[in-house]
Amino acid sequence: MIIDGNEYRIRMNGQVYHCALDVTMELVGGKWKTIVLWYLRKDMKRFSELRRHIPGITEKMLSMQLRQLEKDGFVSRKVHAEVPPRVEYTLTPHGRSLLPLLEEIAKWGRMMGKKYGTIEQVERPVKKKTARKVAVRA
Questions:
Q1: What does the domain layout of the chain look like in residue ranges?
Q2: What is the domain class of 31-104 according to CATH?
Q3: Which helix (DSSP H) or strand (DSSP E) does residue 38 occupy?
Q4: DSSP state of 98
Q5: pLDDT in tens, 1-52
Q6: What 8-state DSSP symbol labels residue 101?
Q7: How many angstroms separate the CA atoms of 138 and 133, rounded?
């Protein structure tokens, strides 16, 4: 990378990067990582909640992405000693440092959606509560 006429490179984790964007994309690039981070931006989520929020991601892929985000220090994982075990994921302070970038990327995506397409609200079917039959003794 060239800054003020000087050439620089970044050495990190045994890799050499010639552009700071390469570092960023190495850490949060790909199809799913930024989406997982986006859904964790406001509060903690359980694995099943994340899976519901991200259509198209497989359980295996979500698990792999969460493991990598945890390894890179963006996400923390808390396991509660319950049966069945409850696992919650939250952003770390390091992960929260990405939020302004994610907000700008999302804002740009919405702008492109409006400019070249449409933004449509998704109607979700309302789940009906099923009545339980209760035996009445006379």
A1: 1-30, 31-104
A2: mainly alpha
A3: helix 33-39
A4: T
A5: 888 999 999 999 899 999 889 999 989 998 999 999 999 999 999 999 999 9
A6: H
A7: 16
Give 53's contacts (C-beta < 8 A, 6+ positions apart).
39, 45
Question: Which phi-psi region, left, alpha or beta, contains residue 8 (left: φ > 0; alpha: ψ -120 to 50)?
Answer: beta
Nearest alpha-carbon partner for 77 in 68, 98, 104: 68
What's the alpha-carbon Rg for the chain, to the nearest Å?
21
Contacts of 55 (CB under 8 A, 6+ apart): none
Is 46 strand, coil or helix? strand
Model confidence, pTM: 0.81
Which helix (H) or strand (E) is 102 found in, with range?
Answer: helix 99-116
Reading the block at residue 40, the tokens are 């964790």
Q: Element (H or E) spanning 11, and its range?
A: strand 10-12
Q: Quick check: 20 and 1 in contact, CB under 8 A?
A: yes
